[in-house]
């Protein structure tokens, strides 16, 4: 893709993932071209790229909209993510070193501080970085790629679980337990705890989906 197309793609993608553009919201080429200061053809190419990532749907009449997911679809995707996140941390354990553990400890400390201050957006960003340390050390790149694809598609759904009362404290405790298993170099326990963590988030979404969305 040319530079302008890449920039348009990145800006639209960022706004979708950040919730600026809502699920099922129409994305018109004219409005986006004016908003981003690029040609309609550039916007069209960017939207096609986003459609290939399942973030945008382009209908037969060429109308584009932000991809929306039903509660059933979200829960199915999270089940897949649970399995692959467990696999990813299991395979990452042998490669995680003292520097990685220190980085995870630092991130977790920041997450705790953000949670205590009610800074939930910053907490979620720390959550993302915590998991990223694990992905970086996982040699199973197909598993990581699929996890990242699912996380990108569902980010605007996942981050809202933190607003449910008590979920923040539970999430922090789950991450602390995962870190302890990583410190011990225990792949069985790390996989179990990671799967429990994702499963807990799935159960929150299942219970509160209508309230959150």
Explain this structure.
The protein has about 210 residues and is mainly alpha-helical. The protein has 2 domains: about 5-65, Arc Repressor Mutant, subunit A; about 70-210, Up-down Bundle (Four Helix Bundle (Hemerythrin (Met), subunit A)). The chain is built from 9 helices and 2 strands. The chain has helices spanning about 5-15, 30-35, 40-50, 70-90, 100-115, 120-135, 140-160, 165-185, 185-210; strands at about 55-60, 65. The protein has a two-stranded antiparallel ribbon. β1 and β2 (about 65) form a beta hairpin. The mean pLDDT is about 95.
Strand order of the largest sheet: 1-2
Sheet of most strands: 2 strands, antiparallel
How does the helix and strand content classify structurally?
mainly alpha
Shape: globular
What oligomeric state best describes the polypeptide chains here? single chain
Q: Can you name the CATH architecture of the largest domain?
A: Up-down Bundle
**Number of helices, where a helix is a run of at least 4 consecutive DSSP H or I residues:** 9
- What is the CATH homology-level superfamily of the largest domain? GntR ligand-binding domain-like
DSSP strand content: under 5%
Q: Ends: how far apart?
A: 34 Å
Order of SSEs: HHHEEHHHHHH
Helix content: over 70%
According to CATH, what is the class of the largest domain? Answer: Mainly Alpha
Number of domains: 2
Report mean pLDDT, rounded to a whole number. 93
